[in-house]
Amino acid sequence: MTEYLFRDDAYLTDAEARVTAVGPGGVELDRTIFYAASGGQPGDTGVLVLADGREAGVVDTVHPGGDRTRVLHVLAEGAPVPAVGEAVALRLDAARRRRLMRVHTALHLLSVVLPFPVTGGAIGEEKGRLDFDMATPPEDLAAVEAALADLVARDLPVTAEWITDDELAARPDLVKTMKVKPPTGQGRVRLVRIGTGDATVDLQPCGGTHVARTGEIGRLAIGKVEKKGRENRRVHLLLADPA
């Protein structure tokens, strides 16, 4: 099982690890700062620095076969390949990760402002989208943007905590997604909380990476609102200042 260092510190951009497996698809490590694609969030990119100083570009990070206990670092074509047991240095594309963190946290806020069941979603570097089980589109997009701006301006803390599978089963209200259920079967599930105590504005299962406070998201803008079914609306959300 790979140790997920980003769960304790999503801002960690460098680390040391040891190679546990090498295959045609990429490299597995005993620990990683690279997030593997899941939950609508793309896999991280960056560099592995081999023991001899050569650099191997990481062009994607995935869970092989959907196994969330394993993380495969997909190397660029022609990149040098480390040996099993070799110590390597990990260097994350930090700017890309931070943009993804801002968008992901912003989408959590969008699910607060538009409190409808979520049927899908995707996270990009400068924009993201959520699909809602919503019969009609929002009438006042300016009001939606204003509500998002207020949550960002409040600079609310974003924290993670854990509950057991049984506790989650007893709290179905925590799950906003209709089609994608939180991964269970490992005994516990990670929750992401925005706000604190009675001032909590959102609490839901999520394994992704997030900024530490909503103020880091920056200005947001609503993009297209598309009809994707009789009662399904796709709402696009953009970082107004992606840099």
**Chain oligomer state:** single chain
Round the Cα radius of gyration to an integer and report it. 19 Å
Number of helices: 3
Order of secondary-structure elements: EEEEEEEEHEEHEHEEEE
- Uncertain runs: none
DSSP strand count: 15
Distance between termini?
35 Å
Main sheet: which strands, in order across? 3-2-8-5-6-7
Helix content: 10-25%
SSE-based structural type: alpha+beta
| Mean pLDDT over the full residue set | 94
Proportion of beta-strand residues = 35-45%
Principal-axes geometry comes out as: globular
Biggest beta-sheet profile: 6 strands, antiparallel
Short structural description:
The protein is an alpha+beta fold and 243 residues long. The chain has helices at residues 94-113, 141-153, 165-169, and strands at 3-4, 14-23, 26-29, 31-32, 46-49, 55-62, 72-75, 87-92, 118-123, 127-133, 158-164, 188-194, 202-205, 220-227, 232-239.
Explain what the structure shows:
The chain is of the alpha+beta class. Helices cover about 15% and strands about 35% of the residues. It has a 6-stranded antiparallel sheet with strand order 3-2-8-5-6-7, with no helix packed on it. The protein has a 4-stranded antiparallel sheet with strand order 9-10-15-14, covered by helices on one side. It starts with a strand and ends with a strand. About 30% of the residues are buried. The mean pLDDT is about 95.
Task: Chart the SSEs and their pairings.
Layout: E1 3-4, E2 14-23, E3 26-29, E4 31-32, E5 46-49, E6 55-62, E7 72-75, E8 87-92, H1 94-113, E9 118-123, E10 127-133, H2 141-153, E11 158-164, H3 165-169, E12 188-194, E13 202-205, E14 220-227, E15 232-239
Parallel strand pairs: 1-4
Antiparallel strand pairs: 2-3, 2-8, 5-6, 5-8, 6-7, 9-10, 10-15, 11-12, 12-13, 14-15
Helix pairs in contact: 1-2
